[in-house]
Amino acid sequence: RYWNRIKVHPCIEKVIQIKAGRNIIGDFLLSEAYSECAFLTPSFLCPSDVVFKTGRSVAVGSVHPKGLRRLMAACPNLTSLAIRDRRTSSYFLRASCPKTKLRKLQRLALNGDGRLTEMGLDKRDLQKMVDALCSLVYVAVDSLEVRLYLDHYAPHVVLGWSTCPFCAAKFPQWNAEHADLWARVHKSLQAGCGESQCNGVK
């Protein structure tokens, strides 16, 4: 399949891939954007911002709050948004982050597993988010407080996990059970052991 490639702001050094003939943004990655960059200005977007206005699915990494606001304003037809950075996820959840233009957003994935206070949030922030995102039907988030609140305040929203809950629960247990193994391997690597020595570690 043929894909057009449009270069974005040079400080981002990423590419927006737009499917020819449909003008749908598949994956908009800003994971390496500089936090001080005020990107996504009207002159930067592209010759015709209709491409952004018809975008359906966007995934971002670390984005400056001003850039995130401009992105949301430029993509009113988003149905899926994934935010992979903790700080950006916390900012998106705040009541001060305008979300009224995302009335078509159905799926939201966030990076956050802490308490509301740790993320600088309270229940009012979550209430404002649910009220603004009237089409929301699915949220992936690991924070238990956020999940409990959404389960109570927005029972129509299906909850998912951003990471594997089994791995998150089991890895600390496995690390404790195999602490001696990890110590031996680490010691061997530090000593620059040969292949025969490493093979002896079970």
Could you characterize what this model shows?
This protein is of the alpha/beta class. It has two domains: 3-164; 165-202, no CATH class. It is 38% helix and 13% strand. The protein is built from nine helices and seven strands. The protein has helices spanning 42-45, 50-53, 65-74, 86-93, 123-132, 144-153, 165-177, 179-190, 195-199; strands at 3-7, 15-19, 57-60, 80-83, 107-109, 138-140, 158-160. A five-stranded parallel β-sheet has the order 3-4-5-6-7. α6 (144-153) links the parallel β6 and β7. α5 packs across α6. The longest helix has 13 residues, at 165-177. The radius of gyration is 21 Å and the shape is elongated. Mean pLDDT is 71; it is low at 1-51 and 195-202.
How far is it from the N-terminal to the C-terminal residue, by CA? 48 Å
Structural class by SSE content? alpha/beta
- Main beta-sheet strand count, sense and barrel state: 5 strands, parallel
List the total number of helices: 9
Main β-sheet, spatial strand arrangement: 3-4-5-6-7
Question: How are the SSEs placed, and which strands pair?
Answer:
Blueprint: E1 3-7, E2 15-19, H1 42-45, H2 50-53, E3 57-60, H3 65-74, E4 80-83, H4 86-93, E5 107-109, H5 123-132, E6 138-140, H6 144-153, E7 158-160, H7 165-177, H8 179-190, H9 195-199
Parallel strand pairs: 3-4, 4-5, 5-6, 6-7
Antiparallel strand pairs: 1-2
Helix pairs in contact: 5-6
